[in-house]
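Suppose a colleague, Dr. K., hands you the sequence of a protein chain of 249 amino acids and asks what its three-dimensional shape might be. Before reaching for any lab equipment, you can write down a predicted structure in token form. Begin with the sequence itself:
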Amino acid sequence: MTEVARPQTAQATAAVLAQAAAGGRSVRIVGGGTKQAWGAAASEPAVTLETGRLDRILEHNAGDLTAVLEAGVPLARAQAAFASTGQMLALDPPLGDDQAATIGGVIATADSGPLRHRYGGPRDLVIGITVALSDGTVARAGGKVIKNVAGYDLAKLFTGSFGTLGAIVSVNVRLHPRPHASATASGASADPALLATAARALAAAPLELEALDVAWRDGWGALLARAGGARPEHQARRAAALLREEGLE
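The predicted structure, expressed as tokens, is then:
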């Protein structure tokens, strides 16, 4: 029978891992439970470590465009808090049922969405991290400022590690101003190669596009380009014209 642990602090999280390691027991780390099928997850772990009680937004430094979040904070809740000051964490992965995806799970799986085109992925947005290791150690790296070069970059190492190196307890993240408006251009084709060529053309064009995405269904694909920032409608019109030049409908 699987033991379930719900630690509320970094030290308690490290203690769970250390106890499991001492007994040679496997551990599965669960946030919102939206990506449990990803990676080489243990099918029948001895211990399930749930991060749901690590759910505090520890800091939101609006003036510095940074925040510190515990791993169990749902990404949707964090985005709502940042939106109140006109800011956002530029990550838009699928959030799963009930928008349950947590910041720890998103970082641990390096999940992202169309915003990656402009802002980069999780590795580009995490500037500091606190992790619990299987020897009972709590390790911290990085800082709370965007330009920080102190110490080894454990944040990048743990991003996409799928819990194999330890448990993410909290992350320090870089925020961005939330666009006041956006506009989207789209083009469609049944030819995947044509869609790919058009996407590359958009990516290379002098446009302020914040997101690119391709949707494919029943043998037909659509390329979506979302513009934000200054004059998004003008940017979207230029993107639409380029899509037509590339042969998309």
